[in-house]
Amino acid sequence: MEDFSTFYFTENSSSKRLVYKKGSGAAVILMHELPGMIPECVDLARRLAENFTVYMPLLFGEPDKPLSVPKMLQYTARICISQEFYCFAQNKSSPITDWLKALCRQAKQECGGQGVGVIGMCLTGGFVLSLMADDSVIASVASQPSLPFGITSAHKAALGVSPAELEVAQARANNGVPILALRFSEDKTSPPDKFTTLRKEFGEETEVIEDNAELCWKRNAALETIEINSQPNNPYNLPQSSHAVLTLGYSSESGHPTNRVYQRVVEFLQSQFATN
Fold this sequence. Notes:
Order of helices and strands: EEEHEHHEHEHHEHEEEH
Shape: globular
Mean pLDDT: 95
Protein name: Dienelactone hydrolase domain-containing protein
Distance between the termini: 32 Å
Domain Dienelactone hydrolase: 23-203
GO molecular function, one term: hydrolase activity
CATH topology: Rossmann fold
Pfam family, one: DLH
CATH class: Alpha Beta
């Protein structure tokens, strides 16, 4: 990762974390998923850095290390008992989001403009709702949000954000800061229940952009969702276990649904930066 610059960021004398930075232009905070900052996540940061200044904090684990099941299990165990990640709380925001909000403000100060974009994935997918409570955030992408882990039907449907921050997110989403949410249709780690709750809280998508054998893409003023078809016999033979839309599940093949979704993420961020 020699093509990234690095710095340590501390918020109010709390945890000091290493942040990787690359690119130019408007700031985008990229929060890695549960396997850690795997090479596929680093590659995503590089792609995004072609259009934006990417800030990628190392939340846990080692940077640029391949996916390892033993390591993932180790990280999961640590996170589940961590005081910074609330893995099972249905209506509480993870404390680490306070540190991330401070990083958002720092990135806005460094890059200028009206605000920053945030991308959360898997473990961090729902964090974007908490971050929207900070007015430095003007573009939010939630990819395969998974917290709280789905141990009960209520956990599967919950968004892992406090009622107060959810209320702010709703208000901001209805006033020019919409949410873009992504998942594979058969993903059990990011169950459909969470998208049902997003629609309950942010409104049903009234505009159908595309609904076919490849993907279902809908939106309203506050919420935009794209669900990639991973059912058996789908056109691209995507496995039903597909989970990570922008990293492990991503394909650079032209026309591939994950490539199209990535392009939409870039367009969405650019549009938000242009209109705010």
